[in-house]
Structures are given as structure tokens and as C-alpha cells.
């Protein structure tokens, strides 16, 4: 069977400023929470490799955009670093950053690659974190100002904007499970961070729409379909609560302009509702997106709790459910994530049936592999497993589209092996391999495959 995708399908990949730019504390850029955390606890980072060690996109942007072109990308996502553009968090704009982002955007456009620009990829400026980060409504306002500066400076050429990448991750990582700075475990504070993020999102969407720039604005969510262990009502209820907390707490405001009543009632019952201000309801309603980015890596397998929760234990999502390992599941052993290709189709079906079939695209999907060293005689990495991974996901995506889903593209995570949060370079994801010592870039076999797939607008 031949899998042909719709005309003008977006074939590209995704990346982010903090994972590729390098020059973390130079050219006018101020520190983010990652620089600070690395300074405080370098051992939390794999092999002690911190955020300064990247593919140095800040200097190699031209070469990298030539590679994107070589890979036949028609779209490419990266982010603008708030700490680079406005080093004090609010106020003066760093002109070196303006020059850099202008050059990148101009070159992408010149090469026929549509720039997709995201405004926040986990990289809170440290000056803003010192004021409470997303817990502080003033920081929310400062983010909206930053968004406006970006629209003003680059909106003539950027027509696809995103307010946040995976807003649930700083909530989980920073305020629930201790794997991101500021390492807090406190549900109420997590709920506040989640709520304020969506207020910030809505302010940016509202401001962008008021500009009438002729572009689109969206949000990028890592949707994790929650599958119950059985159809037993207790398992179904548990999976529904996981879905409410991790998916619908962002998906519903982004697509419906309001929170699910079930979630509000649950948080209220347990005294965990964040504080709202007058006018928030209307603001959230103005935050409905034009385009949804879907990052899909893995599903959630959920069952009801085997034992009752101790009511004195701190309130956590796990009061309501437990994760379990589905027997026979396929795994990516390096990242410890289940591989379940059908998940991509299930997400599209849910969006079509329950959310009015919004315009969307797969904004991340990818396979991180440790010790990628299957070189051929020309030094090219023979990553057939990555080709299988992408092809199998694309087949399910194709099925969703053929049943009517408005899915407009597919972006792989990622273009070039990059630095990643606490994992540093442990898992390599790129279509292009990076030699960290020499900065040499070499297209992998999967990159060649993707190039041909994009040229053919599909595969056999
Ligand atoms: C997503 C992030 C990316 C990227 C990717 C791979 O959650 O948006 O920034 O890092 O996951 O995850 P990791 O690098 O942690 O393996």
C-alpha cells in the first residue's frame, strides 16, 4: 500500500533554543533555570553535561538551515529564548538577540522553510524564577509582554506561533515529581503553575489575534492517551482522572476556552483550586487556539489503586490511580517509554469526535537511542530502528487523516542530536548525528529516508 499525505503536508522537525543554541551566558543572554540548576547540582545532569554544551546553533545556524533544506524540510520549529531576547525578563530588548533571530528567520524563509516559532520551552529566565516563576501573576504579565515583543519584531515573517511547549512538564517536573528546577513537591503550587500558564497562554493568544497579522497561533501539548487496564468502572474512573489532570487541564482551555467541570469539582473537593482573578473566565475563553501541536511519545496505562491512599499523605495525582506495565508492551529501553503507534490515531480520533476536529499537526514524535554507533563504511549511522519507528507512526497518522482528521503535518523530534534536560546527550534523537568534540554533522540513514518521504509526500 502507498501512503500518500495531503497536498502541502508539513514535513519537518522540531527543536528548541535551550537545547541547541549554546552561548548560554554570552551575547547578552541571561541565565535560565537550567543554568542555575546546573550550577547548583551538576550531578543531576547525565555525565555532568550541562546546558552550555550544544550543537551551537547560535553560531552554526546557517549550516544547520542548509541541512534542513538538504533534508527537504518545508517547516521547522524552534523557540525564541526569553532570557536572550529580554535578559532582565521585562524591559530592554537585547539587540544582538534581535539580529540573531532575524538572521535565522530570514534564512529559513529564503530557503522555503516555514518558521514555526514557540515562545516557551521550559526555559524560565532566572530573574523571573526569583520572583516566583509561574506562581507569580506578574511573571504571567511579563511573559505576555515578551510575546508581544516577538510578534512585533518577527510577526511580519513568522506566521505560525506557539505559546508553550508541553506546559504540563514544568508542572510535573518542577512542582510534583522533582525532576526539574525548582524541585518542589506540592500539588497546590503545581495547580497554580498550571493555571497561570494557561492564563499567560490566553493573554498571548488574545494579543496575537488583536493584531490581525494573518498568521496562526497555537499551543503544543504532549498528549498521553490514558488507557484503563480494564473496562471495570474503577479502572475507567482512574484513567479518566489521569486524563483530566495530565491532558484535559491544558487541552480543554486551549480548544474549548474553559476547564472541564469534572476537574474543577475534583480540585475544589480537595481544597486544591488555584486562585482566580476577576476576568479570568473571559480571558481563558479568548485563549482558544487556531492550531494545536501534538507531541506524542507514549501512552499512560492506568489502573485503580490496589490499596486505599493514606489520607494524611500529601495530595498527589496518585491518590486516584496507579500506572501499570501492560504485559507484552513494546518498549524503547533507552528512554524507558512504551512505544504504542496507535496512540497517535487515538489522539486524532478523540480530537475529531470530542473537540470539533481542530487543525492540528504532530509537533514532536521521536526515538531516543543510547550509544548510536552502527556506522557504515562512510561513517553514516544505520538507524533502521528509527525509520521503522517513524514509518509505523506515520501509518497510523495516515489512517486518522483518511478518516477525516485535520492533521496538517508531522515534525520529528529532532533535526540534530541535541542536549536534553537532565539526560544531556544520553539519548540521541536526531536525523543528523553530532560529534560533540568536532561539531561535525552527518546525516543518518533515517534522515535520508525522511528526505525521500518528504519529496514523495509519502512512502510505500
Ligand atoms: C519532549 C520535549 C523535548 C525533548 C523530547 C525528548 O518532552 O519537548 O524538549 O527533550 O521530549 O525527551 P528527552 O530529551 O527527555 O528524552
UniProtKB/TrEMBL annotation:
The record's section on Pfam families has:
Glyco_hydro_1 (PF00232)
Provide any one GO MF term from the record. 6-phospho-beta-glucosidase activity
So what EC number does this one have?
3.2.1.-, 3.2.1.21, 3.2.1.86
Q: Which Gene3D superfamilies match?
A: Glycosidases (3.20.20.80)
The entry's active site is 364 (nucleophile)
Output the GO biological process annotations, alphabetical, semicolon-separated.
Answer: carbohydrate catabolic process
Q: What GO CC terms are in its UniProt record?
A: cytosol
Keywords assigned by UniProt? Glycosidase, Hydrolase
InterPro entries per UniProt: GH, Glyco_hydro_1, Glyco_hydro_1_AS
Keyword Methyltransferase in record: no
Q: Could you say which protein family the record assigns here?
A: Belongs to the glycosyl hydrolase 1 family.
Q: What is this protein called?
A: Beta-glucosidase
* Organism of derivation: Buttiauxella agrestis ATCC 33320
